[in-house]
Write a structure and sequence with these properties.
This protein has 270 residues and is mainly alpha-helical. The chain folds into two domains: 59 residues; 194 residues, no CATH class. It is built from ten helices and no strands. The termini are far apart.
Amino acid sequence: MSVIGLLTFTNLNGLMAQDAVEAPAPQEATEQVDEAADSVAPALDEAAEEVENVAAAEETTKSFHQVLKEKYIQGGAGWMTPVLICLIFGMALVIERILYLNMATTNVQQLLDGIEDNMKNGNVEGAKELCRNTRGPVASIFYQGLDRINEGLDNVEKAVTSYGGVQMARLESNMTWISLFIALAPSFGFLGTVVGMVQAFDDIEVAGDISPTVVAGGMKVALLTTIFGLIVAIILQIFYNYLLTKIESLVGQMEDGSISFMDILVKNKK
């Protein structure tokens, strides 16, 4: 009996010790899970940050064409299209005028020297041929004067003056259309602004609230159409002033060249 009691007491102490050792197991498992979560959390945060950086990089690397297309759509095709048409037609006329005026540019002094050399030798036909082979309004004016040289210097002067007015009108051709598009582009933009404001107030009336989300759509249309209209007008205005300067330069050459041309005819009159 003593031996059996001793064995039983020993087994109970062993079981109690085993329970005492196994009892903290759930706490250790929880600590391990927390440690694993702590080690994974920085990796997840780093991955999320990397995704955000990639998205931000994509937004910042949008091309100018994409941004312009988005703003065009946001501004409303109904109001942005007239502004775009003004830009297209205005730039087409600007390019046409630039090409024409550059082709009309002539080395007037060289032309006058050639005419004087021919007139000193009495070669009126050679001077006329030189004018025919030289492009530009100045050469055309000189040709008209030489063509009437046998009618007297008074008729030559009248021909030069009259044909000079014709050439000046050709130089200024299409300039009024460019100025029209300069005026129309911001006008369409301001019209879109007014319509956008009316739309914003209509939205406020329907919603009964003046929150930013209610008026954002109408205000965006208003601002974008105004911005694009002003940009188009500024671009066309810059080219318009350049063309005016070019025309003034050519007109000055025509006037100075005509005076020198008449002096050459007077000196070599026979």
